[in-house]
UniProtKB/TrEMBL annotation:
Keyword Membrane among record annotations: yes
Pfam families xref list: 7tm_6
InterPro entries according to UniProt: 7tm6_olfct_rcpt
Keyword Phosphoprotein: no
Chief localization: membrane
Membrane topology, from the record: Multi-pass membrane protein
Protein location: Membrane
Membrane-spanning segments: 44-66, 78-98, 173-193, 213-239, 328-347, 359-379
GO biological process, one term: signal transduction
GO cellular component, as recorded: membrane
Protein name: Gustatory receptor
Species of origin: Folsomia candida (Springtail)
Keywords: Membrane, Olfaction, Receptor, Sensory transduction, Transducer, Transmembrane, Transmembrane helix
GO function terms (MF aspect): odorant binding; olfactory receptor activity
Length: 452
């Protein structure tokens, strides 16, 4: 599987994000280098939409300031209007990231794509192995064929990871496009049915005059800007989730598949891979027949290669955290504020508001819950997979290396491997249970808000 073939999955995402003008980066044709748009229509389109997002933020700041100064809204109305302000604030962290750390982010993403291509992208020799018989591939008396058999296994794992990544990106892109369309439509309908809502420019117009054209224009503007905000944030989150899922595949490819840890726990959404093509019993029998010295040397090289590649994974994760951790902390803070306010406003005003308003706040609440339930578990499983890598080799090296200095060296290297995780600022790492902590905090603040 060549790098060009593997990059098709990401090319679709980059092209879609470029089409909407929310992502200033592109994947070059060889599929191994990510760079930002330096000139041309795509650069102009991205700059134009960035300007629109900044102007929309100042527009919402101005509207909420006018409402507060003139006293046109009560406490509940102020909280309701703040939802639009938070929505306009959502793209700000990623916009700052794209402008201040543009080159660093390009280097980080390029390292990720190259790491994925090296570890799970497969090799041309491995791709050719699928035409050979298993008994020929795993003739353990021929060292060249042993290497080819290992390359076939690399190709087989890479093929699975390719389809898993393709499925992940398709699912995420469809989900965020659906959320963007529905959210934009609901906001547009809300503007049409409630033109006097303080978050809209139409609230400043004289109600005695015929303002239908301005109302339609305002609704169209809200439809476009809210959709742009959702897609901009969605592209940032899809990139993070896809990147982490790819790294998890890389860690899985480095783990020892024969260990108890890989038998007991799910990795990348599945149990230990079942090999329907290879005769595992025959392979194990042939391994036992090999010379003990040759066997130990080969296994020592496998452990060393796995730990060295894991160091590369650690380096990529460190760079990802350096680029994304601050922006992700800001995103999670806004998610927390948005969900608390949305649920609070919906519970307090469901009896007095119109059907469109109730649908609006309930839809917002559901979609934000869906996104956070998708985002946090995706990022939290990285630590679990890195633990499995370490323990899978620690369980097997006593059998593989059979004591001595190679065993001690391998054990030291494995203990030096760190448990990986996505940082949320400098405060904590995202774990599988972070989603429960998040909703417990939302519940706590919601109870406090309901006392107001």
């Amino acid at each position: 599987m060549s790098g060009r073939t593997y990059s098709k999955t990401y090319t679709k995402f980059f092209n879609l994000a470029t089409f909407f003008g929310v992502f200033p980066f592109n994947l070059q044709e060889d599929g191994t280098v990510i760079d930002y748009h330096r000139s041309g229509p795509t650069k102009l389109w991205a700059t134009l939409n960035t300007t629109f997002l900044i102007l929309y933020l100042f527009y919402q700041l101005g509207m909420i300031t006018v409402s507060s100064v003139l006293g046109r809204v009560d406490k509940l109305g102020w909280f309701s209007q703040s939802c639009w302000l938070i929505m306009a604030l959502f793209p700000l962290p990623s916009l700052i990231l794209y402008s201040k750390k543009r080159q660093k982010l390009c280097e980080c993403l390029t390292q990720w794509v190259q790491l994925e291509k090296d570890l799970i992208g497969g090799k041309d020799t491995g791709a050719n192995m699928k035409e050979k018989k298993v008994s020929t591939i795993f003739n353990m008396n021929d060292p060249a064929l042993i290497k080819e058999g290992m390359e076939y296994e690399s190709f087989r794992r890479g093929l699975f990871c390719f389809h898993a990544q393709e499925k992940t990106f398709k699912k995420l892109m469809w989900m965020y496009c659906f959320i963007a369309i529905i959210t934009s439509c609901v906001v547009g309908l809300h503007n049409l049915s409630n033109p006097d809502f303080p978050a809209y420019f139409t609230s400043l117009l004289d109600p005695k005059r015929d303002n239908s054209i301005i109302i339609y224009a305002s609704s169209a503007m809200q439809f476009y800007m809210v959709g742009l905000c959702v897609i901009h944030v969605g592209s940032f989150e899809i990139l993070m989730m896809g990147c982490v899922r790819s790294i998890r595949h890389c860690i899985e490819s480095l783990s020892n598949l024969n260990s108890v840890s890989m038998e007991r726990r799910a990795v990348c959404g599945r149990k230990k891979p079942k090999n329907d093509t290879l005769d595992v019993a025959t392979i194990a029998e042939n391994i036992e027949k090999r010379d003990a010295t040759q066997y130990g040397s080969q296994q020592e090289m496998q452990v060393e290669e796995a730990t060295d590649n894991y160091r590369r994974v650690e380096f990529v994760v460190e760079n990802i955290n350096e680029c994304f951790s601050g922006s992700f902390l800001a995103h999670q803070t806004m998610y927390l504020a948005m969900m608390c306010i949305l649920i609070f406003v919906f519970l307090r005003s469901s009896e007095n508001n119109s059907i469109i308003t109730s649908i609006f706040f309930s839809t917002y609440s559901i979609f934000f819950t869906l996104r956070i339930c998708c985002l946090l578990p995706f990022l939290g499983k990285l630590g679990e997979d890195s633990e499995i890598f370490i323990y899978s080799w620690l369980e097997e090296i006593p059998k593989l290396l059979r004591g001595g200095k190679p065993y001690e060296t391998a054990e030291v290297k494995l203990h030096a491997c760190r448990i990986l995780g996505i940082n949320c600022g400098d405060y904590y790492d995202i774990q599988g249970s972070t989603i429960l902590t998040f909703f417990s905090i939302v519940t706590t603040y919601l109870i406090i808000l309901l006392q107001l």
